[in-house]
Design brief:
It is found in: Mitochondrion inner membrane. InterPro entries: NADH_UbQ_OxRdtase_B5_su. The chain has 194 residues and is mainly alpha-helical. It is 55% helix and 9% strand. Among the domains are: 3-41, no CATH class; 83-96 and 104-124, no CATH class; 126-183, no CATH class. A hairpin with a 5-residue loop joins β1 and β2. The protein is flat, with a radius of gyration of 49 Å.
Amino acid sequence: MTKDRLADLQTWRRCSCRSVTITSLGRLADGSLGLAQWHWTKAIRQMSDHRTMPIKPSRWSWNRFKDLMHFYIMLGVIPSALVITYVNLFIGPAQLAEIPEGYVPEAHEYFSHPITRWMAKNVNKSYQQEYELMCHHIYEVEYQQKLRAAERRIHDKMAEKQDTQAYYYEPVSSRQERYIRDVDQANLENSGTN
């Protein structure tokens, strides 16, 4: 083999291809000179090559986060899109009409879109409900203030006269008193008198 063919063969051994055809000048099977071709197929493992695997931080958490985010977004987006499409195609906005005599419309009936009407009826509170809730809150706070003021006046009167046991009397358990008396008696008997 010539040197350039040998260099090609060595290059072939380093490359990642699986087969190669080599043509060289030599003796053929019948003894005459001519071109001979060899077709080699070889599995190359490249175990001595200095390829390295780059060490990188794991992307598992990021990929898992993206998967869950897409899943839960689609879990809400797809049904919402279907409901909105159905409402817009088959129900449509409300038509403006005269209010019948003696009928008092509710707050949610003033909205034209069906989804807005549903949200005003079932999710949001009407102005009347907000007003009544605020009035109830004011009543509760005022009632608590009156109770605290009455409790403070009672406490001051009891401190002034000191004729009840409510705030100033601390009950004592007689069981603990008997135990202390028995311990003192036992100590006195064991120690004796000097």
